[in-house]
Amino acid sequence: MSIKLRPATLNDMPAVLEIVNYEILNTTAIWDYDIRTLELQIEILKEKQSKNFPFLVAEKEGKIAGFGTYGTFRHKIGYRFTVEHSVYVHKDFHGNGIGSTLLNELIEIAKIQKLHTMIGVIDSENHGSIAFHQKMGFENAGHIKQTGFKFDRWLDSVFMQLMLE
């Protein structure tokens, strides 16, 4: 069955929340400690929409299999042409091309919006995500030591960058 991408709606937020909260509780992909509430996830969606940032969901087999979005990289005006993306795939759908389908669409939207560069900030131990980004054309733009703390240990950040122009 094929992957269908579409803009996320409020009705999708419980399924998105399931993906997010799994990542929070079980991985270092999201450096939050506490699970998100549905209200917070809805607020995040509305904020992305209000700023004209995409928030996409991927459907496969009638289920939300993943989501992708991007937003402000840093909150100073000089960074306005740089975005940081997030792509997450439900654990039951890994290896089905969902992540690459979502990221390719985000890249195309960013180009249409005349953005200059896209950043992915990844835990340095997440070798799968780093390899995925390299496959998608991103380059390692830097490694910053001990920028986060989760699961009782320090985590390093790897910055992966794709020039859009």
UniProtKB/TrEMBL annotation:
Q: Identify the residues that the record assigns to the N-acetyltransferase domain, covering every copy.
A: 3-165
Matching entries from InterPro entries are given as: Acyl_CoA_acyltransferase, GNAT_dom
Q: Where is the signal peptide?
A: none
Record Gene3D superfamilies: 3.40.630.30
What are the GO MF terms of this UniProt record?
Answer: acyltransferase activity, transferring groups other than amino-acyl groups
Q: Which domain of life is it from?
A: Bacteria
Q: Which UniProt keywords apply?
A: Acyltransferase, Transferase
Q: What name does this protein carry? A: N-acetyltransferase family protein
- Give the species this sequence originates from: Flavobacterium amnicola
Organism ancestry? Bacteria, Pseudomonadati, Bacteroidota, Flavobacteriia, Flavobacteriales
